[in-house]
Amino acid sequence: MEVLRYGATGTDVELLQLALTRSGYYAGQIDGIFGSQTLNAVRRFQSSFGLAADGIVGAETWRALRPFLTGYFTTTIRGGDTFFRLAKRYDTTVNAIVAANPSLNPDDLQIGTRIVIPYGFELVPTNIRYTSTLMGLLTEGMRMRYPFIGVEEFGRSVMGKPLVAFSIGKGEAQAFYNAAHHANEWITVPIVMKFMENYLNAYINKSTIYGRSAENLYNNTTLYIAPMVNPDGVDLVNGAIDMGSTYYSEARRIADNYPAVRFPSGWKANIVGTDLNLNYPAGWETAREVKFAQGWVSPAPRDYVGTAPLSAPESRAVYEFTQRHDFRITLSYHTQGQVIYWKYQDIEPPRGYEIGTELAQVSGYLLDDVPFESGNAGYKDWFILTYNRPGYTVEAGRGVNPLPLSQFGSIYNDNVGIMTVALANAPGIELE
């Protein structure tokens, strides 16, 4: 993160305000503006943590703030410590400590042993804009709070940012959820991340998610989640790319060729102007013909199909990741429209309509066919064409992209059932 001073604005200020809120030093609005209230909170925080209370957020202050963004810290066991006493001392739960420290025997805690303490607050924020930086912090936090999950880098973006996937469960039936193929649909990232956190918390607490036993889901399925397929584009939309950088300048030049698209809020493509969900080998030539006829004939903020199928490193990475696995069902998260698309052209995968109907019932969304002009070269299209298994594009929420975070609660409530029911159906999908 950059050095922040009074008067700064942007997503790093939102991260600062989030950390200060979680640490108890800030009670104001998280607005991305480093004003007097934020300045006073920084000084109080610095003083409490033995730092120079100058109000400047540099490397040492960020280091002290970091645990409040990753959701955990480490300490050493002292004489008389038990998991119960640690949980009470640090305002967390015994189950959270047990989950984060699978190698420790609670009946035989050794003085001086390092122990991970998850904070009692929820890790995944739903009140700040998402960026690749935040994604990195959440990835670390998830790995440390739930060390039994899988975390892997399955590719890199144009700008070299990691494409991360999580895996949860130990069952044979695999499912795959992906989000943020489109940059200005970044609200889908916290949707799938919050589902993951709620699922994991239900599992460690032997509870349920959307009425289903989390333990049964965990034992019978393995869920893979790629929450941010297009990190460069998300950063562009949310103002997290340096305006003096070559990548920003090139994106600005691309956008100038398509002045009808708002910049950067209308940007859907990757950072060099390829629409990732029009870059898969399923009717790509048809998609090219349709989009060229609409005027998307060169790198653009949206709807440019690329120079060839899988020409974008992000779509190729998702394609190869899928090939390495045996997914029985997939959900691709987009916005907006409150609709679920379930087939590719005339291909109706076995149980695709049946499961899709159930997804529509639990969400109130419409189960529908994709409009012709958008009916090719998407991830869902390629998955159905290649594997003849249920794959769905979920268009969450309503409004103008990017949807505001004020909609997050209602969107999540609509979609937690979709994500749970899709996963619960994975074991019943026959494989050829």
Commentary on this structure:
This protein has 432 residues and is of the alpha/beta class. Helix content is 39%, strand content 15%. It has helices at residues 11-23, 36-48, 59-65, 67-70, 83-89, 94-100, 132-145, 188-204, 214-220, 231-237, 246-256, 284-293, 313-323, 352-363, 379-387, 408-425, and strands spanning 72-76, 114-118, 150-156, 162-169, 173-179, 208-209, 212-213, 221-226, 327-335, 339-341, 366-368, 391-396. An eight-stranded mixed beta sheet has the order 3-4-8-5-9-12-10-11, with helices on both faces. A hairpin with a 5-residue loop joins strand 3 (150-156) and strand 4. Helix 8 (188-204) crosses helix 16 and helix 14 packs antiparallel against helix 16.
For the biggest β-sheet, the strand order reads 3-4-8-5-9-12-10-11
The number of helical segments is 16
- Element-by-element helix/strand order: HHHHEHHEHEEEHEEHEHHHHEEHEHEH
Radius of gyration: 22 Å
Largest sheet: 8 strands, mixed
Distance between the termini: 48 Å
Assess the beta-strand content as a share of residues: 5-15%
Helix content percent band:
25-40%
Low-confidence stretches: none
Report the average pLDDT across residues: 97
Q: What global shape is seen?
A: globular
